[in-house]
Amino acid sequence: MPRIGDKAPEFKAVTTQGEINFPADYKGSWVILFSHPADFTPVCTSEFMPFASMEDKFAKANCKLVGLSVDGLHSHIAWLRTIKEKIQYRDMKDVEVNFPLIEDISMNVAHKYGMIQPNESGTSAVRAVFFIDPKGVIRAIIYYPLSLGRNFEEIYRALIAMQTADEFKVATPADWVPGEDVIISPAGTCGVAKERMESTSDLKCYDWFFCLKPLEKAEVEKAILKK
Ligand code: BEZ
Predict the structure, then answer these.
(1) Is the distance from the beta carbon of residue 147 to the nearest atom of ligand 1 less than 6 Å?
(2) Is 161 helix (H, G, I), strand (E, B) or coil?
(3) Are strands 30-35 and 63-69 parallel, antiparallel or unpaired?
(4) Cβ 59 vs Cβ 96: under 8 Å
(5) What pTM does this model have?
(6) CB of 41 closer than 6 angstroms to any ligand 1 atom
(7) pLDDT tens figures, 13-71
(8) Dihedral, CA atoms, 130, 131, 132, 134, nearest 10 degrees?
(9) Cis amide bond preceding 23, omega within 30
(10) Which of 96, 145, 151, 181 shows its CA 20 to 30 Å from the CA of 214?
């Protein structure tokens, strides 16, 4: 089962957008590889609508989306057509899913990525989300059970937070969103700890190990978002 920090396992697959060679085809981009249990199921349908609607937003953050279930290609095509033609959820309708959806009847990819978790279901994938960086390294993994639809704003928030951490060499606190203070790495020496506590800069050190600094939303957007 792949873990954070591992290279994303390689595979070739057939998708609704043609064949892909993963992760090689995505070199230089972030990619979110996610699984859903089955086509033509309600929770999955409610998930695909917001995720597909947010595809441009993810693209602006240099991130591509790739879906997977253990259904076949024709089922995928029929389901995506049905979503576009018939389904309405919240304020979304006429939603076209343009990102590739992998057919994985053999469960080859699902097993490689630990998406089959037999005590939840032996016949379908759980709701897994793999965040893979432009070098093909897995940076975060989220698993949800079959009954629980994901929050795609949280998935976007996590992506932007990781990109911000990379770009500005900081960490992001609980519930952080762009524009809020970020965390600087803990002091590694007594000297640095003292310096921080005595600093008159814009650092906010509540104690030597808990130091925040401002990072403007515009600065984050300038560094991360493509125009
Ligand atoms: C759903 O997407 O609605 C679903 C899929 C598998 C099991 C339970 C619910």
Answers:
(1) yes
(2) helix
(3) parallel
(4) no
(5) 0.96
(6) yes
(7) 999 999 999 999 999 999 999 999 999 999 999 999 999 999 999 999 999 999 999 99
(8) 160
(9) yes
(10) 151
